[in-house]
Specification:
This protein is mainly alpha-helical. Helices cover 74% and strands 6% of the residues. It has helices spanning 4-33, 51-100, 117-158, 163-183; strands at 37-42, 45-50. The protein is rod-shaped, with a radius of gyration of 36 Å. The protein starts with a helix and ends in a 10-residue tail after the last helix.
Length: 193
């Protein structure tokens, strides 16, 4: 469970960085060897050539070997490290989608060696607090509904046809139902939603 596009982009940037480093190394070599001459003994012969002409091919080949070795080793490390970061980011994204959809019962856990444990702990605490608060609101709404029903029954006994009281109670019921609907959006561990 990882964002493949993130991991591929991260790997591509890493490989581009290695290639750029190699180009700079070769360019720096060419700059340093400009105007210098090297002598080499080959058997009984002495060969003189510019340092650049004499060493450029071995330097390029050495750089290619180093690039290949660094790319393989770096890519292996990159996959390992990016998995420890990109995996948790993907799970955070999925968890936040569930929470934003109203599911406060969703709990989030990372694998043992994953990074971002501090963020995991904060997200768990945030969701638990939000779950508790929304559950409390849902309970209060139920109690408020019961209190309104009881008040409505009492008022009907005392004031048989008082339109103002009936209108006020009807308005309070509408507001209560709208508030229940909003709080009911969230699914909580206390069974609301």
């Amino acid at each position: 469970f990882i964002k493949k596009r993130y991991q591929a982009g991260f790997a591509a940037k890493f490989l581009i960085l290695i290639a750029i480093e190699s180009v700079f190394a070769i360019g720096f070599f060419i700059y340093l060897t400009t105007g210098s001459i090297i002598m080499q003994y080959s058997g009984a012969e002495v060969v003189m050539a510019s340092t650049r002409d004499f060493l450029l091919l071995p330097v390029i080949l050495a750089n290619l070997v180093i690039i290949a070795a660094t790319a393989v080793a770096g890519f292996a490390v990159l996959l390992f490290v990016s998995h420890k970061i990109a995996g948790p980011l993907y799970r955070f994204e999925k968890s936040l989608e569930a929470i934003s959809a109203g599911d406060l019962t969703h709990r989030f856990t990372l694998r043992g060696g994953d990074e971002l444990k501090v963020v995991e702990k904060s997200l768990i605490e945030f969701t638990a607090r939000l779950d508790t608060k929304i559950s409390d609101i849902q309970k209060e709404l139920i109690e408020l509904g019961q209190a309104l029903s009881s008040l409505d029954a009492e008022i009907k006994l005392v004031a048989h046809d008082d339109k103002r009281v009936s209108t006020a109670i009807a308005d309070a019921r509408k507001r209560l139902e709208a508030l229940k609907k909003e709080a009911g959006y969230f699914k909580t561990t206390e069974g609301g939603g």
